[in-house]
Every structure is written in structure tokens, then in C-alpha cells.
Design a protein that fits this description.
The complex is a heterotrimer.
Chain A lengths: L1 E10 L2 E11 L4 E5 L6 H9 L5 E11 L2 E4 L5 H6 L2 E4 L6 E5 H16 L6 H14 L10 E2 L5 H15 L3 E5 L7 H13 L6 E6 L3 H5 L4 E6 L2 E6 L2 H9 L6
Parallel strand pairs in A: 3-10, 3-11, 6-9, 9-10
Antiparallel strand pairs in A: 1-2, 1-4, 4-5, 7-8, 11-12
Chain B lengths: L28 E3 L6 H10 L4 H15 L23 E3 L13 H9 L13 E7 L2 E5 L2 H6 L3 E4 H7 L1 H7 L10 H9 L4 E5 L8 E7 L10 E6 L4 E9 L6 E12 L4 E8 L11 E12 L5 E8 L4 E4 L2 E4 L5 E10 L4 E10 L5 E10 L4 E10 L7 E10 L5 E10 L5 E10 L2 H8 L5 H17 L4 H15 L5
Parallel strand pairs in B: 3-7, 6-8, 7-9, 8-10, 9-11, 10-12, 11-13, 12-14, 12-15, 13-16, 14-17, 15-17, 16-18, 17-19, 18-20, 19-21, 20-22
Antiparallel strand pairs in B: 1-2, 3-4, 5-6
Chain C lengths: L12 H7 L7 E6 L2 E2 L10 E6 L4 E8 L3 E9 L11 E11 L2 E10 L5 E11 L4 E9 L5 E10 L4 E9 L3 E10 L5 E10 L4 E10 L5 E10 L4 E10 L7 E10 L5 E10 L5 E9 L3 H8 L5 H18 L4 H12 L3 H4 L10
Parallel strand pairs in C: 1-5, 4-6, 5-7, 6-8, 7-9, 8-10, 9-11, 10-12, 11-13, 12-14, 13-15, 14-16, 15-17, 16-18, 17-19
Antiparallel strand pairs in C: 1-2, 3-4
Classes of the chains: A alpha/beta, B alpha/beta, C mainly beta.
Chain lengths: 249, 484, 351
């Protein structure tokens, strides 16, 4: 579903991703692990369409309805409408816009694009309230501003809630475990696991092995110095836990 | 030097300790008659052996000045200055552009030593080249040979007019044209001396450059002119210091400083200013009206103004930066301390013209006694300044209940991609913090001093080391005997 | 100046729907081009209108002794054919003297786009212990010019919550003078200023803390689009004896297009040392991070900007605790044409 080919990216004149290549198919869960500064966040933001990066060469292709499109030419909202979703590492606060209103707008926007019928406000509310159970959030938070005054754990759970409502085909989870205690991590992981499906691809970006105990990946890749230096099954994660990243630097 | 008793009758007044620079030097001088007309200007120009083009420039400026009106908008009040009652030239007889220091009148040398500025070889302050200006004239510049090896020109402006006319003609008045304001026109007509520096391409100036101004003669206005040019990729730290004797009459100081930074050049200009402020009743003191402006001409150039103001009866100065080059950077760091009956109206102007230009303003004002401390700033984004950024922070601290702090920033934007963020706050010395320090055995005066220095720290850290030490001591000295 | 007999004037229904919910209004006073529409007005006790005189100014006095909800509505228009219209000027004076609790809205609306001038004065005396919530709206159309002077005097323990919705016109000049003359008095003055096309909105606010223990808070939010120009000068003066005063001011401007201009001059003049006085000013555009977040969830750029611009404005309304005043302001705001308040040309990618 996702094909990254020899991607070379610079920020402010510095190389961040070097000839990066990897592939993800529908139904698979991949983990990308790496030390700080390896380019993990850059990769996830590039897939979502964050501005400010210079692509020198390479491509990111996304398969939908049997054909591949280059994501690099698409605006962030166009990517979202085609089913790409990024769960941010540091979700931004947008006070003054309620979580409910925001979710509804996003949902309807994506529905319109995909030709699916929009839901009435009542029906949508029921849908969302159902999904809040998935991440153990009380429905009253829906009236609060987007991430406004949320704790770290609440922000991460909100990202997963959005994912549950918007039903993306490709989900990138950027360091979803950072800053979470064991209980919050369990709730988030549970939510993600319930969203695994043969039609959906997931990429988990993480530094620590811990998350992968809860969300078991099919494949693990090591990202160091801007490129994928090793790929393997989930045992690779355990090996990294034991030996660290030094061998790859 | 007169000793003054420390009066503590009003517990809320901050008493400055003796102004130890308040002495007078007895020396033979060359003077122009009091008053201002074309003859005085020709007299000054002749005394300095200036070429025709410089005299013409002065006369043009003077004629323009005659049609200008003194500005009255600053938040300061002073009796009208009678420009005909001021003397515009007074130079020590023995001083000349090319003398050795050893040939100078020993009184002059002793004067500067007392001020902590040794001019003679053996007592040289290492790492700093000094241009010493006594009244209107440069009495000499140290370290010229060392600097010459790097191609750095550092001399008096009178000398530069003779020896480096191409540079002077190109840049003099390019940042502050004589028509700019009333005092700039006056200065362009009657300026007597000041420093000239030129840092060649790619040179990181090996020494800090410094000019030390000393006003001595009675009734004399000081109109110095400084021009500093940093060519592409060069770097220089410049330090300005000044003092004046204690007198009952007011003295006028109307200077112009122009800085030019070409592509990727960096100029750091620091001032620790300690003019005489007048006595506790507001009698005497220096009127300090200065136009200081830097122009970041080239891409990625940088000009940084750092100042500690604690003197002069009336201060009216706004070191500014015109950010013309793309990605140019302007900075302004200031601590202004006013006490007794001082009035300060100071601040900065940052004019953003070039894309992605950036400016930072950090201003700390401390008002004590019956003083008034005003910050006046302007941040302006022209339509061409895409992506420009400014951050400003102006904090005032009031000590005692008779002083006043005012903040008048003005922010103008004509560009939708430029961003500005400005904050200001007024506070007093924290009772809780004072108590905490005292409960650990620190006396009240020292505690106040510590807290005030803490308040100023973010500015002091931008001063070169020797200056920051001097600045801390200066503030402490001014705050001694305060009871908060 | 008025082109048909006042008695024949009918308030258009969309206007009366907009204006009030008559059940919750104790008094609704209507004016048309400065003339009092006595027959259409519903008066409460303590309210008096003095109208007439050679300049045809209208003078309202509200002396509240019981809790009141009052709407003062100024409508401007001209129903004659365009060819015969001439610019005209109107003078309105309101004197509000409140000794208990009052919720007052004063709304100036032009019914069509006409060239005219309004000189408006709203003077408040808020007596000891009284509380006033005041919402003032100007929506006069592109050709109008207005000068609005608001004078507030607060006595001991009085409080004043003021909200202004200023929709740009050819030129709108606001002057607000607040005197916190009574101990423990407090005021909040918040405004939303919207300028587009060639609108000019200038505001000068002076808040004087004359005595101890007084409090003021100001939030001024502006949106400037196309060739609009907004200037705000906010002066806070704290007198020597006004110890333990607390003054805060924040001015935010969204400058959204080339050709727009914003000038902000927050000023502080503090003479007492045991006080808190702060001000902040920002001029910029919509937050890029927030924009990206919304777009990454499927909102097109324009939609995302629309959402953020509305959220930006809502902050002012969120501060209105009086349901009566808030409802009124929000109803008017929701009728503003989209390009005034929320839709922006997507010309600048950088934005």
C-alpha cells in the first residue's frame, strides 16, 4: 500500500533522510525503530505532508483503488481524504474548536471525497460516543477544545479516537508511546489493536521496544542516519532492546 | 572631589554614592568663541585641516538645521536649551592627531588613568584597543600597529577624513543623513571628533575596539561622531564608555553613531554609560541626546546594541537597526537605571525591510527616587519583509513609590507573513524574595542589589566580560543605601 | 434627513429577529437615523428618551435600580432612490446611570450601504456596587464614517464588562475612556474588530487606575484582510496612590493579506510600585501547526482557515457571561457575510 523509494530529504540544507526505501502492504503492522536524530519523525511528517522539507530525489507512493499515486504532490488534506492518517507525537492544541465539531468536519470532508453518505449530527454523535469507549475517554471531553488542556496521555488517546472515527487505510503512529505511563500505554495499545484489519496498514514509529509488547508488529526496521539499515521480524526488536542501537551508528 | 554625606532622611530614596568621576582636569585648551554661526563652523573645520568637501557638508547641514525645530515629543521635560550659549569647540592644546602618547600633557594621561583607562604602553589593557577622546578631540589611539597587521583601521574620525577619504565619503551620513532629525543636523555641522573603524573582508577583529569619551570643559557641548564599517564576513566588538565631571550647569552631548554591516558581517556595540546625573535635587547633569543607528546592508549581517544606562540628567536615545539585508539580525539589550530626578526616554527602532529578517528587543528599566523611566520602541515591518520576526520584552521595576515607569512601544506591520510578539510588565522587588534572602543572612541592601542584578541578568550576559563586571558594579553602587 | 415620516417606518423583520428575543428584553428602544421610534419602542421603568432639538439628537437616560435587560437599537438607512440620496450625519447620545445590575446592548446597524456619518457618545456612571454588562456593535457598511466615544466612570466596588463588535466601514474611530475612580472597582473591555476591503478602524483606549485595589483587563482581537487597516492604542495609567492595582492588556491581530496594515501601541504609565501591570501584543497570521493538524485530518486549506478564524473570534464571545448580551452579539456575528469574518482568499500559500 505504501512504497517509499530512495527518498532523499533535506531540512535547512542538512541531509535527514538518505536513499530511504521500504514497503508496507495492507494488513501489515510495521515498526520503525531508531535512535534520536535518525530521521523517524521526519519520515512520518513527510508521509502526512508537513511543509518545510526539501525532497532532493525519491518518492513516496500510495496505492489506492489498484493504482499508485505519488503522495509528494498531494496537499495534506488530499492525503487524509484518501485515507492517510498520522497520529502526531506532539498533538497541537486548538482551543476554540470543539473536539466534536472538528471530528464531524473531518469525517464529512472525507466522506464527501470518498462518495460515502454524510451522517446527521445525531447519528454521528452516537458513532463518536461509541468510539470513545475504545480509548476509555468520557464523552464530555467532546465539547472541550481540541487537545486544549489535555494531559499527554489524553492527547495520545484523542489521536487514536480520531483514527477510530476516520477509519484510515494507512495509519502512521509517531512515537505514540512517548510520555505515557503503563496504564495509559495499555489503553492506547488496546485501541490500536482493535483497529487492526486486513485492509489497513500501520506503521509504528518508536524508540523503545516496550510498545511492541502490546502492539505486536509483523516486521521491524532499524532507521539510523537517515536510512533503513536492517529489517527483520519482531525478534529484531528484542535484540535492539538488549544491545541498543550502537551497532548501527 | 567633594565628599557628600549619605542622607537617609527619606527612607524610600535611593542614594547614589559619590560620583567618583566628578573631578575636573586643569589643562590648557584651544577654544572657539561661545555661540554658533558659520564662522564657528569654519573655525572648527580649519582647526582640523579638513578638505573642502567636508567643510561643505558641514555648511549644508548647518543651513538645513537653521530651518528645523527642536523636537518636543519625548516624555522628558527640561528648560529650553539656548544654542547660542554653548561653546562648540574646546581641545586640549597639546593634543594632535599624530602624537605619541608619551608626548601628551601628563595631566591628560593622569586623567584617563584615574578613569581606569591607562594610555601608556606599559600599562595597556590587553585585548582592547582604545581611542581616547578628551572634550572634542581624540588624544590618541592605542594598539594601532597590532590592528594595522590585520588591515583594521581604528583612528579618530578627523584622521580618517584625511587618510581614508574614500571610505568616509562612501559611508558618512549613509545611515543617519543630516536631514534625519534636529540633533543629527546639528551634529553634522559641528561634530568635532569620534572614532572611525573599518574592518576588512573576512577579518575577525583581534582586539575589542573601544572609545572613551571624557567631557571636561565648562559650557562645552560634545558632538562626537562615530562611524564603524564592517566589511563582508568581518566581526568586531566595540565598547563605548563615557564620564563627565560634576558641574552645576547642564552640559549637552549630541552624538551620532553610524554602524554599517555588509554581508555576513557582525557588529556588537556595547555601552556602559555613566554620565553625571545631576545632584539629588536635579541640578546639573548632562543632557544626552544621541542618534545611534546601524544598517544591516548585506545578507545575513548582524548588529547588536547592548547598553547599560545609569547616568545623564536627561537621556534621549534610540539605538536602531535598519534590517535591509535578507536574513539580517538586529538585537537590542538594555538596562536603564534612573534615580533622584533623572528622566530617561530611551528605546529602540527595528525597521524590517529584508526578507526573513529577525530582531530581538530586551529592555529592563529600574526606576527609583523621583525619576521617570520611559521605554519607547518601534518595530516596523515593511511590505517587503516576508517572513520577518520580532520578539520584544520590556520589563520595568519600580523601587519606592515616587518613581514612574512608562512603556510606549509601537508595532506596525504591513506584511502578513511577518510575526511580532511583544510583552511588557511592571513589578517591584518581590517581598517574598527579599525575605528569603534576608532569612539566609543577606543584608537588605545586598539583597535588593542581588535581586536587581538578577532582574538585569538577561541583558548583562550580552555584554563583553569586562563590561558586564563593570555594569554589575555600577548598578550596585547606584543602589547602595537603598531601603526598598 | 429622514425621507419618510417616522410613523410610517417599519422595522424589517430580519432585523427584529436579529435584535431580540422580546421575552427576555425588559426594554427595547429603537432609533432610525437618530430619530426615536417611540411607537416601536418598549420602555422600562427608569428609562427616558429626550429627543428633538435643532440638531435632532437623541438623548437616552437609563437609571437602573432593578436588574434590567435593555436593547438600544440604532438603524440607519434611506429608502429613496439612490440618485436622490445625499450623505447625512447623525448624532446619538446615551447616558447610562446604573445603580444595580444592567445588561445593555447598543447596536448600530445600517440597513443599506449608504454614505453617512454617525457621532455616537455612550457615557456610563456605574454607581457603588453596581454591575453592568454592555455589548456595543457597529455594522454600518462600507461607505459610512463614525466616531464613537465611550466614557466610563466606576465608583466603589463597581464592575463593568464591556464587549465591542466593530465591523469595519470607511472609517470607525473609537475612543474609550475609563476611570476606575472607586476602590475595588473593576472593568473588562474586550473587542473584536473585523476590517477588510478598505476599512479603517482606529481605537484609542485609556484606562485610569486612580485609586487603590482596582482591576482592569482588556482583550482586543482584530482580523485584517485585503486592504483593511486597524490601529489600536491602549493606554493604561496607574496613579501614584493606586497601589495593589492589577492591569492586563492583550492585543492580537491576524494580518491576512498583503495590502492590509496593523498598528498596535500598547502603553503603560505606572506610578505606583505595588501593582501588576502587563501588556502583550502580537501581530501575525494563523498558526501553521494548527493549520497543518486540521488539514491532516481532511479539511481543505480554506476550510481549515475558516475554522481557525472562527475559533480565534470566539474567544471574545466566550468571555461574555451575560446570556442576554452574548446571544445578541453572536446573532449579529453569525449574520456577517462570510468574507467579513471567516473566508479568506487563498492567494498566499505562505499563509
Amino acid at each position: 500500500m505504501l512504497k517509499v523509494s530512495k527518498l532523499n530529504v533535506q531540512i535547512d540544507g542538512k541531509d535527514v533522510l538518505r536513499d530511504l526505501s521500504f514497503k508496507v502492504n495492507a494488513g501489515e503492522v510495521h515498526a520503525i525503530m531508531g535512535p534520536n536524530g535518525s530521521g523517524k519523525s521526519t519520515l512520518s511528517k513527510m508521509i502526512a505532508g508537513y511543509p518545510g522539507y526539501t525532497v532532493n530525489s525519491g518518492d513516496i507512493e500510495y496505492e489506492i483503488n489498484g493504482t499508485y499515486k505519488s503522495l509528494l504532490k498531494m496537499e495534506p488534506d488530499e492525503r487524509a481524504k484518501d485515507g492517510v492518517f498520522l497520529a502526531f507525537q506532539y498533538p497541537v492544541e486548538v482551543p476554540g474548536v470543539s473536539n466534536f465539531a472538528f471530528l464531524r468536519m473531518a469525517f464529512n470532508s472525507i466522506c464527501r471525497h470518498q462518495g460515502a453518505p454524510e451522517l446527521s449530527e445525531e447519528k454521528f454523535r452516537k458513532l463518536v460516543e461509541e468510539k470513545t469507549k475504545l480509548v476509555e475517554m468520557a464523552p464530555d471531553f467532546l465539547e472541550r477544545g481540541v487537545n486544549a488542556g489535555f494531559s499527554g496521555g489524553e492527547k495520545k488517546r484523542n489521536e487514536i479516537l480520531q483514527m477510530a472515527v476516520l477509519q484510515p487505510r494507512l495509519a502512521i503512529l509517531d512515537e505514540t508511546d512517548s510520555g505515557l505511563d503503563i496504564d495509559a500505554l495499555r489503553v492506547v495499545a488496546n485501541g490500536v489493536n482493535k483497529l487492526r484489519s486486513p485492509d489497513r496498514a500501520m506503521v509504528l514509529i518508536t524508540h523503545y521496544q516496550r510498545l511492541l509488547n502490546f502492539i505486536v508488529p509483523d516486521y521491524v526496521h532499524v532507521l539510523a542516519n537517515g536510512r533503513i539499515v536492517r529489517s527483520g521480524g519482531r525478534e529484531l526488536a528484542l535484540e535492539l532492546e538488549k544491545n541498543g542501537y550502537n551497532a548501527y551508528l | 572631589m567633594t565628599d557628600r554625606e549619605n542622607k537617609t532622611s527619606n527612607v524610600e530614596m535611593i542614594q547614589p554614592t559619590d560620583y567618583k568621576y566628578g573631578f575636573v582636569t586643569d589643562i590648557d585648551t584651544d577654544t572657539a568663541p561661545i555661540g554658533l554661526d558659520e564662522k564657528v563652523i569654519r573655525f572648527i573645520s580649519a582647526k582640523k585641516n579638513e578638505p573642502e568637501w567636508m567643510l561643505n557638508y558641514r555648511l549644508k547641514a548647518y543651513r538645513h538645521w537653521l530651518n528645523m525645530k527642536e523636537p518636543t515629543w519625548a516624555n522628558v521635560h527640561y528648560p529650553k536649551i539656548d544654542f547660542q550659549k554653548i561653546r562648540y569647540y574646546s581641545a586640549p592644546k597639546a593634543a594632535g592627531a599624530k602624537k605619541n602618547f608619551e608626548d601628551l600633557d601628563p595631566e591628560l594621561i593622569r586623567t584617563f588613568e584615574r578613569l581606569g583607562i591607562p594610555l601608556l604602553e606599559q600599562k595597556r589593557i590587553s585585548g582592547v584597543a582604545i581611542d581616547a577622546v578628551f572634550d572634542s578631540v581624540s588624544v590618541g589611539t592605542t594598539q594601532k600597529e597590532t590592528l594595522a597587521k590585520y588591515g583594521v583601521i581604528f583612528c579618530s574620525i578627523s584622521e580618517a577624513i584625511q587618510e581614508h577619504p574614500e571610505l568616509v565619503k562612501k559611508y558618512f551620513g549613509s545611515v543617519v543623513p543630516y536631514a534625519d532629525n534636529f540633533y543629527a543636523a546639528l551634529n553634522a555641522a559641528v561634530f568635532t571628533d569620534g572614532s572611525f573603524c573599518y574592518i576588512p573582508k573576512g577579518v575577525h577583529c583581534p582586539l575589542d575596539l573601544s572609545t572613551y569619551f571624557r567631557i571636561n570643559a565648562k559650557d562645552t557641548g560634545q558632538f562626537e561622531r562615530t562611524l564603524l564599517i564592517a566589511d563582508e564576513g568581518s566581526y568586531v566588538n566595540y565598547l563605548e564608555g563615557c564620564t563627565a565631571p560634576m558641574r552645576d550647569e547642564n552640559q549637552l552631548h549630541a552624538a551620532v553613531v553610524e554602524l554599517v554591516a555588509l554581508e555576513r558581517a557582525e557588529i556588537n556595540y556595547s555601552t556602559v554609560q555613566n554620565w553625571y546625573t545631576g545632584d539629588q535635587n536635579g541640578v546639573g547633569g548632562v543632557y544626552n541626546f544621541v542618534t545611534k543607528r546601524g544598517k544591516c546592508v548585506g545578507k545575513k549581517s548582524k548588529i547588536s546594541w547592548t547598553q547599560v544606562e545609569s547616568g545623564s540628567a536627561i537621556t534621549w536615545k534610540y539605538p536602531s537597526v535598519i534590517l535591509q539585508g535578507e536574513e539580517s539580525v538586529g538585537e537590542f539589550y538594555s538596562v536603564a537605571l534612573t534615580h533622584d530626578y533623572m528622566q530617561a526616554d530611551t528605546g529602540t527602532k527595528m525597521i524590517h525591510i529584508g526578507k526573513n529578517s529577525r530582531s530581538t528587543i530586551l529592555s529592563k528599566g529600574i526606576s527609583t527616587g523621583n525619576s521617570v523611566n520611559s521605554y519607547r520602541g518601534l518595530v516596523k515591518f515593511m511590505p517587503s519583509a516576508d517572513g520577518a520576526r520580532n520578539y520584544s520584552q520590556c520589563d520595568s521595576m519600580l523601587v519606592g513609590s515616587s518613581s514612574r515607569a512608562c512603556t510606549f512601544p509601537s508595532i506596525e506591520s504591513k506584511n502578513p507573513t511577518a510575526m511580532v510578539e511583544h510583552e511588557a510588565s511592571t513589578s517591584r522587588i518581590g517581598e517574598d524574595q527579599l525575605f528569603y534572602l534576608e532569612s539566609r543572612g543577606i543584608g537588605k541592601e545586598q539583597a535588593v542589589s542581588l535581586l536587581v542584578n538578577g532582574f538585569c541578568r538577561d541583558v548583562f550576559k550580552h555584554l563583553p566580560l569586562e563590561f558586564s563586571v563593570e555594569a554589575v558594579k555600577l548598578i550596585e553602587m547606584k543602589l547602595e543605601n537603598s531601603i526598598g | 434627513m429622514v425621507t419618510m415620516p417616522i410613523s410610517d417606518f417599519e422595522i424589517p423583520s430580519e432585523v427584529s429577529e436579529l435584535i431580540c428575543d422580546s421575552r427576555s428584553t425588559d426594554a427595547a428602544i429603537y432609533f432610525y437615523n437618530g430619530e426615536w421610534l417611540e411607537n416601536h419602542s418598549k420602555m422600562g421603568s427608569g428609562i427616558r428618551v429626550v429627543s428633538g432639538g435643532p440638531e435632532k439628537t437623541a438623548n437616552i437616560e437609563i437609571k437602573g435600580s432593578a436588574s434590567q435587560r435593555v436593547a438600544v437599537i440604532h438603524l440607519y438607512g434611506n429608502r429613496r432612490e439612490a440618485a436622490l440620496q445625499k450623505p447625512f450625519s447623525v448624532s446619538c447620545v446615551q447616558n447610562y446611570d446604573v445603580s444595580s445590575e444592567a445588561h445593555i446592548v447598543e447596536t448600530h446597524l445600517a440597513l443599506n450601504s449608504i454614505e453617512f456619518t454617525v457621532q455616537n457618545a455612550a457615557t456610563f456612571v456605574v454607581e457603588t456596587g453596581a454591575q453592568v454588562t454592555f455589548g456595543q456593535t457597529f455594522w454600518l457598511g462600507d461607505e459610512a464614517t463614525s466616531k464613537n466615544k465611550v466614557n466610563l466612570k466606576l465608583h466603589q466596588a463597581a464592575s463593568f464588562s464591556g464587549f465591542a463588535l466593530n465591523v469595519g466601514s470607511s472609517c470607525l474611530n473609537n475612543e474609550i475612556e475609563t476611570d476606575l475612580s472607586g476602590k475595588n472597582s473593576s472593568c473588562e473591555l474586550h473587542s473584536l474588530i473585523l476590517a477588510t476591503r478598505r476599512h479603517r478602524v482606529n481605537t484609542i483606549s485609556t484606562v485610569r487606575h486612580s485609586v487603590a485595589d482596582t482591576k482592569s483587563e482588556q482583550l482586543i482581537k482584530s482580523i485584517v484582510n485585503e486592504a483593511g487597516k486597524v490601529q489600536f492604542t491602549g493606554n493604561i495609567k496607574i496613579a501614584k496612590d493606586a497601589q495593589k492595582s492589577n492591569a492586563r492588556q492583550l492585543s492580537q491581530t491576524l494580518l491576512l493579506s498583503r495590502g492590509g496594515e496593523a498598528i498596535t501601541e500598547p502603553q503603560l504609565d505606572v506610578g505606583a510600585d505595588d501593582v501588576t501591570a502587563t501588556h502583550g501584543a502580537t501581530i501575525g497570521q494563523l498558526d501553521e501547526e494548527q493549520l497543518f493538524y486540521l488539514m491532516s485530518r481532511g479539511l481543505a486549506r480554506n476550510e481549515a482557515r475558516h475554522v481557525l478564524a472562527l475559533a480565534y473570534q470566539r474567544e471574545v464571545f466566550d468571555r461574555v457571561s451575560s446570556g442576554f448580551v452574548r446571544g445578541h452579539l453572536e446573532r449579529i456575528h453569525s449574520r456577517l457575510p462570510a468574507e467579513m469574518s471567516a473566508e479568506f482568499s487563498d492567494g498566499e500559500r505562505a499563509l
